[in-house]
UniProtKB/TrEMBL annotation, chains A, B:
Organism the protein comes from: Mariprofundus micogutta
Cofactor stoichiometry and binding remark: Binds 1 [4Fe-4S] cluster per subunit. The cluster is coordinated with 3 cysteines and an exchangeable S-adenosyl-L-methionine.
GO BP terms in the entry: thiamine biosynthetic process; thiamine diphosphate biosynthetic process
Protein residues bound to substrate: 226, 255, 284, 320, 340-342, 381-384, 420, 447
Cofactor: [4Fe-4S] cluster
Domain ThiC-associated, first and last residues per copy: 20-97
Function of the protein: Catalyzes the synthesis of the hydroxymethylpyrimidine phosphate (HMP-P) moiety of thiamine from aminoimidazole ribotide (AIR) in a radical S-adenosyl-L-methionine (SAM)-dependent reaction.
List of residues binding [4Fe-4S] cluster: 568, 571, 576
Official protein name in the record: Phosphomethylpyrimidine synthase
Length: 621, 621
């Protein structure tokens, strides 16, 4: 990583992720103070050609998770990391202090190990921690009535779809299963939702590079992309590249699930270069520290791992505190047992010691750490089903009820919480998951893996799970953890990461539409209008993946002239339903026949007129 | 097509589609007479290694749409076509006669055109037609209480998933929205459903090569793949190849949507080589006959086209009889107008003549033709929405109500009917489509295109629509028309056809699971069991796409030894949740701790025992 050759490779890997999107520019919406600059992507559209001349199409603003990478005004230097945009916000609250050194013993060991000099990020910042007796969580501020810059940032960010709103057509009211999304997201609404525990802003004080985002069911549905090396494969460079690549395509958060070598160093590189929240599963690293022997795990080793990672800036921790001793044997009759790695580690620990899970018995100790750095809980579903046959069983729902109890304990400490969910669940059993979660966890945000709706398609599990993800998002799930085509088969590469992210953006957006999220339909409508008007470039540019849309079009009609053609490649120039529709529209307009009544009144004697004026099809252009 | 070089190319193109699936063999279940031979694919599994030795895993039978192409005992010769397995069944009913020549004027013209000799299928069979006054539809037989060989064939076919059933785990009761799927599908149940109009067997008497299948919501959810050339691109060879390719991967029917040159000849090649029902949209060809000028269409031209195609053996016709004059102007205010090609052709015709749609006014004349050949109606949704913004509007539902009226007229003639549906519909508006269709069309099978649940992802519309398809399948839709990644952008190639088919098999199967279709979960359970037991080869072979599953695995762990490894590439050899689960299982078994009560009773004092016996993980192997 420190040799010239290595860093050039790294820079090259990032080249693609740093290209601005076509016809797009990065814009910033300023908040109540000049250092609140909320990034968005503005897509410029071409005008509509009409018989009366030209009609402008307003640009469309879209939510932008790509960070400074797509900003041509920013010089990216992965070896320096991103700018710490939250630094002043954190400092001015005057409730934290910069520590002289690392608190974690393991962190110090890694820092002092000269053998790691070549791997280590060169500009490790001194860690920051809450002053004695202070709680620095967003939930704590919210409950005191304080609107933080982070809350204002996410409020602006959630509203963007209504900026430049162009009322092309009616909005369909959604079906929101009891949620209550307001027409305008205010910072005060954000504060209330955080205080209530119905939403979280994962934002460690040691991750000042973060562009804040919110997870909760009264906001846009979010997605998470997993990256991480394993003992078998993958390097630091690859993991950093996967992170920038996944956020380019829309990943709202990233989980680093590394289980192989140099996890500590990999994580530092990722966080310093990430504008999105980073989540981890600390038990993975704790297990590495005891050479993979689950029985040898201790609370002390785990505690040191939490602090090590909290001081690096991890924004949320998956912690499997709900895997209780008494639930473990309930999985014995399952078809696929325990498939969560964290769940199986803790199950093994519990059984071999015949003791209750130390992540449960030390839960309040963990809360004490979380609130010092504002790390959010992602309470792990260690007993989630790993096969359709195991969905919604007693082991799963038993654990869920325990996660509900723990949620209330975390909230007592003003620590932010979300709840992880399955897994493998057939469609008709998905809603029960959401309903049970809302009930037992008192509306804390739900964060599910898929769920996969069938087990028969390895190689396509982004699709088997995208189906379930769209549904549970609609029912109220706040964040969807992506699944790539390689699930169950291998480690995802760059193409798999992109396929997973795009699939999950589709699921999340389909859910936003179904929930009736204000403004969500604007991009659909703009794209459909572009399609109807044969504005091919606009259609590509409004797509979640402009590159693929364009290349698919070019396979059939590669010439540039085809992109301004008033026909599409499906039917050819003479035979086009959209052309014919234009006739209908012109006819109805000329004859005032736009409602059923007008039609019935005016239908007689206008036929000849149509033949005369309408014989030239698509005469708008 | 007739030169040696051409046919060699064709044969090569078909090579892939003719490979048997790995570890699979074609088996035939014999019905009540020796000429009822229902094909299925049997997947052989390897045994489970246990500490007690070896435990056999029964082979799994799966529904097989691939026809004789995957049967190594059949010599495929595309220039001869497939064997006419239904020939005797049709003949022995003694209600049809072989005609001396073609009835259709156009058909005769094409036959006599020497310029087409090179393109023409060489062995065109003489057409068969009902004897005067006879009705040869499956519905007609069913209503007289006759169980035809076709009905018995599909009854056996629908049951296959319960053959060799191995009760691995509990079956989850589905949520079937009012449908009533019996535990065993009998030929008599098939007859009742056909007689009631709740299911159809599309099976033209001029398509004796057909392996009969059934479409109805009390049966397995089916999928359709579209193929077809256009004025821009594609050849006869490509279309025949796409058909065999799509049916290899699971397409239950094929629609030939050709709009370009030599449609008549292409269709003959496709039908003669197809073991699945073929559907068409006759108005496309009728329009070609009037040089693309919709106003010049006449009932006479259309009528001749129906007969031409019926005598070739088309099994179902999409006919847009519901596009009424008064509905057309209702589309003028839409964002995307009329996107159905057939719908826009008829809309243009109606407006320019100021007359009611001739497909509506001549509906009973059309029924007279349908019943002479047993062609099924697929009543077209010419006014389906082409954008989320246009979903469930008055134009769409007005047409649907008219399709309901027409259904009852067709049933009066004992003609089989299914109803086409949208299109572009956000998730929360999908169920209304299904409910309205059931209500107005009196439970005639619904056959939908997707629906696409968002418009923002051109290039990924197999996924945007696969989400909607799974849902509407669950709600009761009988057949799902696939959408490929090229939708809206270009003509699908071979890879796109496969991606579309596999995605829709996922949606259809997810729907079967959610409906609680008896036995549907068997394949999921077998695959999950193989996964849990690290039987990699079985996991690949049970997948919808063994080739892709295997190649994805091999990207990370290419060695053959990795396919027998008791770990997967996600976590590496030391760190594996499935290994740990095995410990839990062994522990629970040894200590009789498989229920909550047993656990609470026996939880004390067994900890040390576990440490002693359980320290070697995965000691089953």
């Amino acid at each position: 990583m420190t040799t010239q050759a290595d860093s050039t490779d790294l820079a090259e890997n990032h080249y693609d992720a740093q290209q601005p999107f076509p016809n797009s520019r990065k814009v910033f919406i300023e908040g109540s103070r000049p250092d609140i600059q909320v990034p968005m992507r503005e897509i410029t559209l071409s005008p509509t050609q009409t018989s009366d001349g030209v009609e402008e199409n307003a640009p469309i603003l879209v939510y932008d998770t790509s960070g400074p990478y797509t900003d041509p005004n920013v010089e990216i230097d992965l070896e320096q990391g991103l700018q710490p945009i939250r630094e002043a916000w954190i400092a001015e609250r005057n409730d934290t202090e910069e520590l002289a050194g690392l608190t974690s013993e393991y962190g110090r060991e890694r820092r002092d190990n000269e053998g790691l000099d070549d791997l280590r990020f060169a500009h490790v910042r001194k860690p920051r921690c809450a002053k004695s007796g202070k709680n620095v969580s967003q939930m704590h501020y919210a409950r005191q009535g304080i609107v933080t810059p982070e809350m204002e940032f996410v409020a602006i960010r959630e509203n963007q779809r209504r900026e430049h709103l162009r009322e092309i057509t009616k909005q369909h009211p959604g079906q929101s299963w009891g949620a209550a999304i307001p027409q305008v997201i205010t910072a005060e609404f954000v504060r209330e939702e955080i205080a209530r525990g119905r939403a979280i802003i994962p934002a460690n004080i040691n991750h000042p590079e973060l562009e804040p985002m919110i997870i909760g069911r009264n906001f846009l549905v979010k997605i998470n992309g997993n990256i991480g090396n394993s003992a078998v494969s993958s390097s630091i460079e690859e993991e950093v590249e996967k992170m920038t690549w996944a956020t380019r395509w829309g990943s709202d958060t990233i989980m680093d699930l590394s289980t192989g070598k140099n996890i500590h160093e990999t994580r530092e590189w990722i966080i310093r270069n990430s504008a999105v929240p980073i989540g981890t599963v600390p038990i993975y690293q704790a297990l590495e520290k005891v050479d993979g022997i689950a029985e040898n795990l201790t609370w002390e080793i785990f505690r040191d791992t939490l602090i090590e990672q909290a001081e690096q800036g991890v924004d949320y921790f998956t912690i499997h505190s709900g895997v209780l001793l008494r639930y473990v044997p309930l999985t014995a009759k399952r078809l696929a047992g325990i498939v969560s790695r964290g769940g199986s580690i803790m199950a093994k620990w519990c059984l071999s010691h015949h003791k209750e899970n130390f992540l449960y018995t030390h839960f309040e100790d963990i809360c004490e750490i979380m609130k010092k750095y504002d790390v959010s809980f992602s309470l792990g579903d260690g007993l989630r089903p790993g096969a359709i046959a195991d969905a919604n069983d007693e082991a799963q729902f038993g654990e869920l009820r325990t996660l509900g109890e723990l949620t209330k304990i975390a909230w007592k400490h003003d620590v932010q919480v979300m709840i992880e969910g399955p897994g493998h669940v057939p469609m008709h059993m998905i809603k029960e998951n959401m309903d049970e979660q809302l009930k037992h966890c008192d509306e804390a945000p739900f964060y599910t893996l898929g769920p996969l709706t069938t087990d028969i398609a390895p190689g396509y599990d982004h699709i088997t799970s995208g189906i379930g993800a769209a549904q549970i998002g609609w029912y109220g799930c706040a964040m969807l953890c992506y699944v790539t085509p390689k699930e169950h088969l291998g480690l995802p590469n760059r193409d798999d990461v992109k396929a997973g992210v795009i699939t999950y953006k589709i699921s999340a957006h389909a859910a936003d539409l179904a929930k009736g999220h204000p403004g969500a339909q604007q991009r659909d409508d703009a794209l459909s209008k572009a399609r109807f008007e044969f504005r091919w470039e606009d259609q590509f540019n409004l797509s979640l993946d402009p590159d693929t849309a364009r290349s698919f079009h070019d396979e059939t009609l590669p010439k540039d002239s085809a992109k301004v053609a008033h026909f599409c490649s499906m039917c050819g120039p003479k035979f086009c339903s959209m052309k014919i529709t234009q006739d209908v529209r012109d006819y109805a307009k000329e004859h005032g026949m736009e409602t059923r009544e007008a039609i019935e009144a005016g239908m007689n004697e206008q036929s000849e007129e149509f033949v005369r004026t309408g014989s030239e099809i698509y005469h708008k252009a």
